[in-house]
């Protein structure tokens, strides 16, 4: 029983605070795909090794973006609504 109590203490004291800190840092990133400075549409940029590891840790919910108009570059949150389905890119045959 004392070992279980120590494990609970370690979880409450350290791991839960770490999870809360990661969640708060994630929520700081902007969630829209527009630039923060000029409000133009931004483009996704390929992330480096560290960024890809962070993206995997957050299950693909973080993306590096760049604004071609003003040169802003930063991390943004992505949602499931931002992903374009692959069948939306296929043209439909209108002759039938």
Low-pLDDT regions: 85-91
Please tell me how large the radius of gyration is. Answer: 20 Å
The strand line-up of the biggest sheet is 1-2-3
Number of helices: 2
Secondary structure: helix percent: 25-40%
Task: Please provide a written account of the structure.
- With 96 residues, the protein is of the alpha+beta class.
- Helix content is 38%, strand content 12%.
- The chain has two helices and three strands, in the order H-E-H-E-E.
- It has a three-stranded antiparallel sheet with strand order 1-2-3, with helices on one face.
- Strand 2 and strand 3 (73-77) form a beta hairpin.
- It is elongated.
- The model is unreliable at 85-91 (pLDDT under 50).
Short recap of the structure:
The chain is an alpha+beta fold. The protein has 2 helices and 3 strands.
Which helices and strands occur, and which strands form pairs?
Layout: H1 2-28, E1 43-44, H2 49-57, E2 62-66, E3 73-77
Antiparallel strand pairs: 1-2, 2-3
Task: Offer a few descriptive terms.
96 residues, three-stranded antiparallel sheet, 2 helices, 12% strand, alpha+beta
